[in-house]
Amino acid sequence: MSTMVVAVVLGSAVLHAFWNALAHTARDRLAAVALIAVASGGAAVLLLPFLRPPAHAVWPWMIVSGVLQAFYNFGLVLAYRLGDFGRMYPLARGTSPLVVALVATFVVGQPMSGLEAGGIVVVCVGLLALAFSDGMPTRADLPAVAAAVGTGLTIASYTVVDGVSVRRAGGFLAYSCWSFLISAVLVLLGVALLRRSRFLPSLRQGTARGLTGGLVAMTAYTLVLWAQTRGGLAEVATLRETSILIGAAIGALVLKEGFGRLRMAASAGVVIGIMLIAH
């Protein structure tokens, strides 16, 4: 992978961890997700008149991507409600790269070098070690773990869909805007159905935080889509999940969730894996 692609994906990872921390620390996470949808969907509406529509062949997949991203948002809210950010975030994000790597290699037909494959394995092991650094989950933790793993599988699904489709779309920015708009509409409908008469009043709390998170989220994933047009699907997906390192730091330094020796060792492993992928 080129240095530019690596730098862009790592920058996206920082932004991704930031908006996830905003969502986690919100008093009302469901309202925060709705505000994130308002911001990203609104930005898409403003940009779309200046962009050429994506190729007709990718529209079905773009719709699938939007639906999967909506499910991802609700899965994230559930995982954060059931467990700590420092564990749920790496578990959700750490599940995805290995699944994407297997699909990219054996289904999509994107071969990788031995060093890249080794780097992906090292990063995945490090990310999962971060998730379980406080010990193996107890029976009481299983619902939270299930929500996080389910969210990770959703991430893997839309990553594969987007990684294949964006190359055929004729423009990554238009593809991003349409998929975010579709997701935003579905998220807002879902929250409105859940909240009913409390929907609009709930959006008045943490408005600035939610809207900022939406713009950051859209920027972060648009950078990933650009990278997917220039790099391998598995490599980009794995580098993107290094946002977990930032998330672990936020959990330790801001949310006071602890950062022991195992987390430090796991973080070092992730850095080594990144170096192998970006060789």
From TrEMBL:
<feature type="transmembrane region" description="Helical">
    <location>
        <begin position="6"/>
        <end position="23"/>
    </location>
</feature>
<feature type="domain" description="EamA">
    <location>
        <begin position="144"/>
        <end position="277"/>
    </location>
</feature>
<feature type="transmembrane region" description="Helical">
    <location>
        <begin position="144"/>
        <end position="161"/>
    </location>
</feature>
<feature type="transmembrane region" description="Helical">
    <location>
        <begin position="173"/>
        <end position="194"/>
    </location>
</feature>
<protein>
    <submittedName>
        <fullName>EamA family transporter</fullName>
    </submittedName>
</protein>
<dbReference type="InterPro" id="IPR037185">
    <property type="entry name" value="EmrE-like"/>
</dbReference>
<dbReference type="GO" id="GO:0016020">
    <property type="term" value="C:membrane"/>
</dbReference>
<feature type="transmembrane region" description="Helical">
    <location>
        <begin position="206"/>
        <end position="227"/>
    </location>
</feature>
<keyword id="KW-0812">Transmembrane</keyword>
<feature type="transmembrane region" description="Helical">
    <location>
        <begin position="91"/>
        <end position="109"/>
    </location>
</feature>
<feature type="transmembrane region" description="Helical">
    <location>
        <begin position="233"/>
        <end position="255"/>
    </location>
</feature>
<keyword id="KW-0472">Membrane</keyword>
<feature type="transmembrane region" description="Helical">
    <location>
        <begin position="115"/>
        <end position="132"/>
    </location>
</feature>
<dbReference type="InterPro" id="IPR000620">
    <property type="entry name" value="EamA_dom"/>
</dbReference>
<feature type="transmembrane region" description="Helical">
    <location>
        <begin position="57"/>
        <end position="79"/>
    </location>
</feature>
<feature type="transmembrane region" description="Helical">
    <location>
        <begin position="30"/>
        <end position="51"/>
    </location>
</feature>
<dbReference type="Pfam" id="PF00892">
    <property type="entry name" value="EamA"/>
</dbReference>
<comment type="similarity">
    <text>Belongs to the EamA transporter family.</text>
</comment>
<keyword id="KW-1133">Transmembrane helix</keyword>
